[in-house]
Design a protein that fits this description.
- Two copies of one chain form a homodimer.
- Chain A has helices at 2-6, 15-23, 32-36, 58-68, 158-177, 240-245; strands spanning 72-74, 80-82, 85-88, 126-133, 138-145, 180-189, 198-209, 212-221, 227-237.
- The termini of chain A are close together.
- In chain A, strands 3-4-5-7-8-9-6 form a seven-stranded antiparallel beta sheet. A two-stranded antiparallel ribbon of chain A has the order 1-2.
- By secondary structure, the first copy, chain A, is α+β, with helices and mostly antiparallel strands.
- Chain A contains six helices and nine strands; from the N terminus they run ααααβββββαββββα.
Chain lengths: 247, 247
C-alpha cells in the first residue's frame, strides 16, 4: 500500500495532512473542527503541538501573541471574522481521516511519529508554530531550539535547521499548491545558532511554473536583524487522487 | 565563550571531536584508546552508539561485518595491522577532552545531546555507523531509519535524510581537511525512503580549493541499485587554534 501511494513521490510532510484538513474548512479557526470529525481512535482529540506550553520563553510567547492576535479581527459592527493570518495546528502522527471522513491513508503504524514532534518533553527539541497569510502568500514559523538539537558544541545541528526549513517550506508549498513533494533543498549556512535561541523562519513564494512551486526561506533572529541561514526549495505537485486513493 | 569559539563558524558537528580524538592516535583501532585518556567525568567510558545493538536488522549487521572485517587485517607473518577501513566511534555529547588531555571546549551543557543521538531507545530513530577509507578518500555510512523519523506517512522525513547527509559529509570533511564548517548543502530527493529501511550513504571527495572542501553524497539501497537522494556539500576549513583555544 505504501508503495502504491508513494510511487513517484519524493517527500510529503505529514504536516500536509493537517493543512488539508484545515483548508477543507477555511472558516474554522483551530483544531476543534478537525478533531470533531475524526474517528474515536483519535478521541478526545490529538494533542496540538503548536499551542503554547510552559517551555516557551518570553520571546516565543511575544511573537506567538503577535501573530495569533491577527488570526481573528473585529469588524466595525463588533463581529469577529478571520484576520490576515491563520495558525496551523500540528500533530505528531498521521491523521487517517480529514474533516468529513475523507480517507487519506490505510497505513497505520502505531509507533510512527512525525520527526519534528517525536520528543514529548516540552522545550527539549523542536518547539514551533506556523502561521500562514493567504493574501501575501507568506508563511512564518516561530521556532525555539531545544538542547537535544545539538551539533557544534552549544549550537544547533545543521540537520535540525534543514529539518525546520523543509517542514516550513513544505507546509507553505502545500498551502499554495495543494499536495506537493520536495524535489530540492539548497541551504546556505551563514552563522551558527546557539541552543535555546528563538528564531523566525520566513517562507515566501518565488514563482510557480506548471507543477513546480519555488519557495525561499530565511532563518533569522526574531527581530530579523541577524541572518543565520537561507535556502531555496523546489516542490512538485502531486495529484490528490494519487495521494488519497493511491491511484 | 560560545561566541568567541564560534565567531565566524557556520556549523561544525560534534562528530568532529571524536574524529579529532581518533586522528590524534591513528594507530588506535577503536574507542578504548580515547576513553582511557579521558578524565574521570567520562568514566567508565561514554557509550559508543556506533556499535551494534539488538535493534540492528540482518542487513545492517551484514554490512557492519563487511566493513568492520576490513578494519584490521592479518599480514603473511600472522600479525595484525590496520586495514583499509576504519570505524569511527560516535557519542551523544561533546567530548571535552581529546586523547592526551587537549582541552577542546569550556562549554559544559549537561543536558545537551547530539541531535542524531538524542533518543536512547535502540532502533527508534537514527541507527548508524561510519567507516572511513583514507586511501580512497571515501566514507560510508550504514543507516537504519527508525519509526520516529516519519515525514510522509510510513516514510522518512526529508529533514532526517538531510540530517544524515550533513552528519556523514561533515564527518568526512573533517577527516579530509581537519576542522571544517558546513557552508552549503544542496539536496535532490529522488525517491522516498520507507521507515525501517537500511540504507547506504556514500561520501566522496570532489575537490579541495584553498579552504574549501567539496564533497558529494548518495543515499541508496544497500546494494546500491536504488538511488533515493543525492547531494553536494561545501565545507570551509577553520583554524585549530580558533577551535580549541577560541583565539
Amino acid at each position: 500500500m505504501a508503495k502504491s501511494i508513494f510511487k513517484g513521490f519524493h517527500r510529503l510532510s505529514s504536516l500536509s495532512y493537517s493543512i488539508m484538513a484545515q483548508l477543507s474548512h477555511p472558516a474554522s479557526s483551530g483544531s476543534a473542527r478537525i478533531s470533531s470529525a475524526l474517528p474515536a481512535f483519535f478521541s478526545p482529540k490529538p494533542r496540538d503541538f503548536s499551542l503554547p506550553n510552559s517551555s516557551w520563553g518570553p520571546e516565543m510567547m511575544r511573537l506567538y501573541e503577535h501573530y495569533n492576535s491577527q488570526c481573528e479581527v473585529e469588524t466595525e459592527g463588533g463581529e469577529k471574522c478571520n484576520g490576515p493570518w491563520r495558525r496551523l495546528p500540528s500533530y505528531n502522527r498521521v491523521i487517517k481521516y480529514a474533516t468529513g471522513g475523507v480517507y487519506l491513508s490505510k497505513i497505520i503504524q502505531s509507533k510512527a511519529r512525525l520527526f519534528t514532534r517525536n520528543i514529548r518533553e516540552p522545550g527539549a527539541a523542536f518547539e514551533y508554530v506556523l502561521f500562514v497569510n493567504s493574501e501575501e502568500q507568506k508563511c512564518v514559523c516561530i521556532f525555539q531550539a531545544g538542547h537535544l538539537l545539538e551539533g557544534p558544541p552549544g549550537h544547533v545541528h545543521g540537520g535540525a535547521i534543514a529539518t525546520m526549513i523543509d517542514s516550513v517550506t513544505g507546509t507553505h508549498g502545500t498551502f499554495l499548491s495543494g499536495p506537493v513533494m520536495t524535489g530540492n533543498l539548497n541551504i546556505n549556512y551563514r552563522s551558527p545558532i546557539p541552543l535555546g535561541s528563538t528564531l523566525l523562519l520566513e517562507s515566501s513564494l518565488d514563482k510557480k511554473e506548471g507543477r513546480k512551486t519555488f519557495i525561499s526561506c530565511k532563518v533569522t533572529s526574531t527581530d530579523g536583524s541577524k541572518l543565520h541561514t537561507e535556502a531555496t526549495a523546489l516542490f512538485v505537485s502531486i495529484s490528490v487522487s494519487h495521494l488519497i486513493l493511491g491511484k
